[in-house]
Write a structure and sequence with these properties.
- By secondary structure, the chain is of the alpha/beta class.
- It has two domains: about 130 residues, Aspartate Aminotransferase, domain 1, CATH 3.90.1150; about 240 residues, Type I PLP-dependent aspartate aminotransferase-like (Major domain) (Aspartate Aminotransferase, domain 2), CATH 3.40.640.10.
- The protein is about 40% helix and about 15% strand.
- The chain contains eleven helices and twelve strands.
- A seven-stranded mixed β-sheet has the order 2-8-7-6-5-3-4, sandwiched between helices. Strands 9-10-12 form a three-stranded antiparallel β-sheet.
- β5, α6 and β6 form a beta-alpha-beta unit.
- The longest helix has about 40 residues.
- The radius of gyration is 21 Å and the shape is globular.
- The structure holds pyridoxal-5'-phosphate.
């Protein structure tokens, strides 16, 4: 990233922490062996993978053997949803999820609907939070999987997943969470949170792109089995074949280790900057916060600048990177499905920007962003009138 860019799009991806890059480097050069080979360099590579598995396991409170490495959260989500529905087809072919999930979950569910699986998409309230009464009503005896994200990528809103997991388990359904925006940024403990299946991704917490993982509970009563999506060689206990991405996995481990040590100090620093930015925007006329004011991750602020088009705001900025909704659907011209599910009309959804801060954000980034965006919004509003 060029020096002059003010990067406030950490929910799309984060920069690689220099310490993570340093940890990865030897595995691109001297230590290139295949982790499945039984010669000495192979054993060394396999040790590095083992150590990374232990680091991610301590970050999420699992056993190392419960972690499957994948190419990222999208693959982890596809593996889990398709694999569980296939393996447990005798139990039923029904999924419960939420309308504000990431496209990785929603599009996988849509695909399965075309194959005869039934999917219930739960609504959310004005804050983006799902109603537990609705969850309970939706889960049936033939529900195989309940999948609800922990932190929303567009608003940062946190769902009550402990309670949802409890409701799923009462009907013998597995509880899965897409925790891609949570892992590495807030404390996540799969045991305390009663999670059976969880997806995460390195590039959302200062690790490299193209690597992530899946937690699959191995202890009764909710031991998860699945049919693999990718066959060939039986790597990752048969759940995901293919030569392991050793540098990527080492990077994921390094990012997990740093997150565990620095999560608390990151949170304090980032929250202060986020709150400052948010206050400045909310002091402007006709601005509204999208999402719950408190039940929300500390690094995100999603603001509706009424009467100013988000694309036009972004076009007016050449050194500030922010997002109009989610980057994953940036090729589509539809308004954010998350904001419309929360009851925003199309115009307000089109006038909303997501600011997501990170470990390397500074006071000057925030001051600069607040004044530039404020001025741009004011100009656009005058043009409209
Ligand atoms: C980024 C993201 C994903 C996709 O992760 P990849 O590793 O890029 O495939 C899935 N879910 C959420 C909530 C995300 O923010």
């Amino acid at each position: 990233m060029q020096e002059e860019i003010i990067y406030l799009d950490h929910n799309a991806t984060t920069p690689l922490d220099p310490r993570v890059l340093e940890a990865m480097m030897p595995y691109f050069t001297n230590l290139y062996a295949n982790a499945a080979s039984n010669h000495r360099p192979g054993v060394e590579a396999s040790r590095a993978v083992k150590s990374a598995r232990e680091k991610i396991a301590s970050l999420i409170g699992s056993d190392p053997s419960e972690v499957i490495f994948t190419s990222g959260a999208t693959e982890a989500i596809n593996t889990a949803i398709k694999g569980v529905l296939e393996f447990y087809k005798e139990k039923g072919a029904h999924i419960v999820t939420v309308s504000t999930e990431h496209p990785a979950v929603l599009d996988t569910c849509k695909y399965l609907e075309s194959k005869g699986v039934e999917v219930t998409y739960l609504p959310v309230d004005q804050y983006g939070i799902v109603d537990l009464v609705e969850v309970e009503k939706a889960i049936r005896t033939d529900t195989a999987l309940v999948s609800v994200m922990l932190v929303n990528n567009e608003t940062g809103v946190i769902q009550p997943i402990n309670e949802i997991a409890e409701l799923a388990h009462q009907k013998d359904a597995f509880f899965m969470t897409d925790a891609t925006q949570a892992v590495g940024k807030m404390p996540v403990n799969v045991k305390e949170m009663n999670i059976d299946i969880m997806a995460f991704s390195a590039h959302k917490f200062y690790g490299p792109k193209g690597v992530g993982g899946l937690y699959l509970r191995s202890k009764r009563p909710f031991k998860v089995k699945l049919d693999a999506l990718i066959h060939g060689g039986g790597h990752e206990r048969g759940a995901r074949s293919g030569t392991l991405n050793v540098p990527g996995i080492v990077g994921l481990g390094a990012a997990a280790e740093i997150a565990l040590q620095e999560m608390k100090s990151d949170q304090e620093k980032i929250k202060e900057l986020r709150d400052q930015l948010e206050r400045t925007f909310l002091e402007m006329s006709d601005t509204v916060l999208n999402g719950h004011p408190t039940n929300r991750l500390y690094n995100v602020s999603n603001i509706c600048f009424k009467g100013a088009d988000a694309d036009a705001i972004i076009a007016g900025l050449d050194n500030i990177a922010v997002s109009n909704g989610s980057a994953c659907s940036s090729t589509k011209v539809e308004p954010s499905h998350v904001l419309t599910a929360m009851g925003l009309n199309e115009q307000d959804a089109y006038s909303s920007l997501r600011f997501s801060l990170g470990r390397f954000s500074t006071h000057s980034d925030i001051n600069n962003c607040a004044s530039t965006i404020g001025a741009t919004v004011n100009i656009l509003r005058t043009l409209i009138i």
